[in-house]
Specification:
- The complex is a heterodimer of chains A (540) and B (322).
- Chain A has 540 residues and is α/β, with parallel strands linked by helices.
- Chain A has two domains: 2-256, P-loop containing nucleotide triphosphate hydrolases (Rossmann fold, 3-Layer(aba) Sandwich), CATH 3.40.50.300; 273-539, 3-Layer(aba) Sandwich (Rossmann fold).
- Chain A contains 22 helices and 20 strands.
- Chain A has a six-stranded mixed sheet, sandwiched between helices. Chain A has a six-stranded mixed sheet with strand order 16-17-18-13-19-20, with helices on both faces.
- The radius of gyration of chain A is 25 Å and the shape is globular.
- Chain B has 322 residues and is mainly α.
- Chain B is built from 13 helices and two strands.
- Chain B has a two-stranded antiparallel ribbon with strand order 1-2.
- The termini of chain B are close together.
- The chains are: A alpha/beta (540), B mainly alpha (322).
- The interface between A and B is medium-sized, with 38 and 28 residues.
């Protein structure tokens, strides 16, 4: 159905390489799913965009090759001709459902305008019925209410369902899904993947699924195409590519996916606790009217401890209170009741110099490695700033910072550079060095590898594990990716809506989950079934 | 929260802000060196100490400042802004007399600059970095960078002195009899254009940037992926989003409609509130000056309330409901 031949997309002069996509060819049959896999910058997204004629304006003139949909040549169409193809024959689903919808237009109208755009004249009532039926088809239970809502009033999963509804409104032959679940929680991700599979089965459309996650590939793909630096390095059936990859790059990508089947063994002896949470409650207040405020519980009765030298993973969906715990622990936000002890002293009662000292002992690595570094500060200064603030001599602090940057794998030539001159993985290394500079007792990693590509993610995780062993660090590892939690932690705490639903040795949690919610989370992990099978096979 | 409650609360807040502004103005004016009593005494040509004391007592100027402030605020609440001794008339009457001229001038300039600025901004923003965009940018910025009085003088030179198409100053009403709407409009032309040329740049730049940034938003790509025409995307998705910051700016600027433009009103001998304030300052006509300040502040606050309410209607993300 879809035949791509020698697709080549040039980059404007001055880019880091000559082509975004270089001479790639592949086919997709109706009713099948082709996963286009690669790391960021591999050209997978722009390939998907080019097939729908949606690549950025400056790249349009630089695109050559042939794209045929059911025998009709698409390359070289005018924008006007594209208008008839898009929406009707090709539907597109994007990564970020929040921004993919117009914030000031009601959801129903955004769906309704598709019909008008393709010359389908309907009465007001017919249009409303169509929109409601469409919303029901993508699994939205209250179509009337959702159609009358704005995108910011509905949940992330619902938003992505609406975007999918836009894409499949006119039953296109081809659905291009560009990382449609990357911004979603693991359980929502599973639902969206199931929805796409259902719709595909109903209508027999071909799905081009762009992703970086081999877990998803294992679940949904018929065919897999692997891209690296704009080139197609491997293409074949799922079984072939996942089980017996021909290219070392593909092997590297597959291996880098954190695997649930390798849990860290839990240490038997438990040394004295470094941090103790006791019945901590915390709520955020939301303005309700001019003077009244409503209280939204963020943490309810949270009790757990972290022992010295231990790695504790905090897992849960977004909004479960994971990051709130990190913020309470760093005293970045006040706590209403309960106590937090740091090696016996009451963290919440500290003030002044004592608090400053406690802050030194608890350090955090943030999710966004770019946003958390000052863009106008050289990395050496960013790393040395902490120790200097705590009274270390300036020259000594800079010397130590250089040493730390070497420890996290950055050499001496980079010291005077600015954050934008580094890649995402390097920036996260800087973030880690910055956190370690003040010699903390506890390092909190708040989704520290979520924004990174899978191979870079594996490198940073390895670095954190090395450092943990070398320095005997205690770590609180916050993540929504249970595969990572399994790989790095000794113990795991599962959070839901601000409450702890289950905690224990990581191996126990993953092998013998007690709580229904934990089981649901585990079941939603992409690639889980494939991994289970191979684990069972390895036991035999 | 109900919408009506939101409006009431907003008005309540506005009244509080206004009272604070009036109080501040009142106190600031008293910082000007010189004694109001001696100004009054100067008017009547006598300045000995007993006469000053008498005046102070007569007008309550001997009372503590806060008591005077209270009296002023209470009177102002009943639309009594005091008496202008130099002009021998009630302040409120003078202001009401001058207000229409200012509103005609600034209101038309405001509307023209809004329409032209937004129109050009959308046009240039959707074709950014093209030759037309660059040309408009240069021309508009040139007018923005040139002082208004100079633009005004040049316009007078071209259209009044050389071409003799339009009158150079006044409103046409100076002689006392009504010359008709056409004459008035002719008199209005040059000052309005002068003032508008400046503000066009503000709206143009804002709207252009806004359109460019909205065009890069993901939902525009979604709209394209749905097969919408360029026109439909611009009209339904880009414009409604791009206009929001322009709206905020317009609300802020609308407040200055009443204060008028001292420079433009002076050059074109336009009898507006801006010039009135300037004259009051020069003559140390404290009551009149305070009255002008109060009117300006009241309009700024009121127009911002209206803008806030409209904004809540235009942008659903503004939280009225919670």
């Amino acid at each position: 159905m879809l035949n791509v031949r020698y697709l080549r997309i040039g980059l404007p002069v001055g880019g880091d390489r000559g082509f975004a996509v270089e001479d790639i060819s592949f086919d997709l049959a109706a009713g099948k799913t082709l996963c286009l896999v690669g790391e960021s910058g591999s050209g997978k997204s722009v390939t998907g965009q080019a097939i729908a004629g949606l690549q950025p304006k400056i790249l349009r003139g630089l695109t050559t090759g042939s794209i045929k949909l059911d025998g009709v040549e698409l390359s070289g169409l005018t924008q006007r001709e594209w208008q008839a193809i898009r929406g009707r024959q090709i539907g597109v689903v994007f990564q970020e459902p929040m921004t993919a919808l117009n914030p000031i237009m009601k959801v129903g109208r955004q769906l309704a305008e598709i019909y008008a755009a393709h010359g389908i004249r309907l009465s007001r009532a017919e249009l409303r019925d169509r929109v409601h039926a469409l919303l029901e088809r993508v699994g939205i239970r209250e179509p009337g209410r959702i159609a009358n809502s704005y995108s910011f009033e509905i949940s992330g999963g619902q938003r992505q369902r609406v975007v999918i509804a836009c894409a499949v409104a006119l039953s296109p032959k081809l659905l291009i899904a560009d990382e449609p679940t990357t911004a979603l929680d693991v359980t929502t991700q599973q639902q969206v993947l199931e929805l796409i599979a259902d719709l595909q089965q109903e209508s027999g459309m071909g799905v081009l699924f762009v992703t970086h996650d081999f877990g998803i590939v294992a679940d949904i793909a018929d065919e897999v195409a692997v891209m690296q630096a704009g080139k197609l390095v491997e293409c074949g059936s799922k079984a072939q590519v996942l089980k017996a990859p021909k290219q070392p790059y593909t092997r590297q990508l597959v291996d880098a996916v954190p695997c649930l089947t390798e849990c860290r063994p839990c240490p038997v002896c438990r040394p004295a606790p470094l941090v103790v949470f006791k019945a901590v409650c915390k709520h955020y207040s939301v303005a309700e009217g001019l003077f009244r405020r409503r209280k939204n519980p963020a943490l309810t009765d949270v009790s757990f401890d972290i022992c010295k030298g231990e790695v504790v993973a905090l897992v849960g969906e977004s909004g479960s209170g994971k990051s709130t715990i990190a913020r309470c622990l760093t005293r970045l936000t006040p706590v209403e009741s309960g106590s937090i002890q740091l090696e016996g002293s009451d963290l919440l009662a500290l003030g002044g110099a004592e608090l400053k000292q406690a802050r030194r002992r608890v350090q955090i690595v943030f999710q966004d490695p770019y946003g958390s570094l000052d863009p106008r500060q050289k990395v050496i200064d960013a790393v040395a700033a902490g120790p200097i603030a705590h009274g270390v001599d300036k020259d000594q602090a800079r010397a130590e910072a250089a040493e730390l940057l070497r420890l996290v794998g950055l050499n001496a030539t980079v010291l005077d550079r600015f954050p934008h001159e580094f890649s995402g993985g390097q920036r996260q290394r800087i973030g880690i060095a910055r956190a370690l500079a003040v010699k903390p007792d506890l390092l909190i990693a708040d989704e520290a590898v979520s924004a990174l590509d899978v191979t870079v993610q594996a490198q940073v995780l390895r670095l954190l594990q090395d450092l943990q062993e070398k320095l005997g660090l205690t770590m609180l590892f916050i993540t929504h990716d249970l595969r990572i939690a399994a790989q790095v932690s000794d113990r795991t705490v599962v959070l839901r809506n601000g409450r702890i639903v289950e905690m224990g040795a990581t191996e126990d949690i993953f092998r013998r989950p007690q709580d229904e919610y934990t089981r649901k989370l585990l079941g939603a992990i992409p690639g889980m079934q494939a991994a289970e099978r191979s684990y069972a096979a390895s036991l035999q | 929260m109900q919408f009506s409650r939101f409006v009431v609360m907003r008005l309540f807040k506005a009244a509080a802000i206004l009272a604070a502004v009036v109080a501040l103005n009142f106190l600031l004016i008293r910082l000007i060196p010189g004694d109001p009593a001696s100004v009054l005494a100067g008017e009547s040509g006598m300045a000995d100490e007993t006469f000053l004391a008498m005046i102070r007592e007569m007008y309550g100027l001997d009372k503590p400042l806060l008591v005077q402030l209270k009296t002023y605020l209470l009177n102002a609440a009943g639309f009594n802004l005091g008496f202008s001794y130099p002009l021998q008339r009630d302040v409120i009457d003078i202001i009401i007399e001058r207000l229409p001229a200012t509103l005609a001038l600034t209101g038309s300039a405001f509307l023209i600059s809004l329409v032209v600025g937004v129109g050009l901004g959308v046009w240039a923003g959707s074709r950014s970095n093209g030759p037309v965009d660059r040309l408009i940018n240069v021309v508009v910025l040139a007018f923005y960078a040139t002082p208004g009085f100079w633009v005004g003088l040049m316009l007078i030179l071209i259209f009044s002195v050389w071409l003799r198409w339009l009158p150079a100053s006044g409103t046409g009403f100076e002689t006392g009899d009504d010359p008709g709407a056409l004459v008035y409009l002719k008199h209005l032309c040059l000052p309005v254009v002068t003032l508008a040329l400046y503000y066009v740049a503000v709206y143009f730049r804002l709207c252009r940037t806004s359109v460019i940034s909205v065009l890069h938003q993901d939902f525009v790509r979604t709209a394209r992926s749905k097969g919408l025409s360029w026109r439909a995307i611009m009209r339904r998705h880009v414009l409604p989003n791009a206009i929001l910051p322009v709206f905020t700016m317009a609300a802020l600027q609308a407040g200055s409609l009443v204060s008028g433009s001292i420079a433009i009103e002076t050059i074109f001998a336009w009898p507006g509130v801006g010039r009135l304030g300037y004259e009051a300052l020069m003559q140390r006509d404290y009551n009149l000056l305070l009255g002008v300040f109060l009117t300006t502040a009241a309009m700024v606050v009121l127009l911002n309330v209206i803008a806030d309410i409209l904004y809540a209607v235009v942008d659903p993300r503004i939280e009225v409901a919670r």
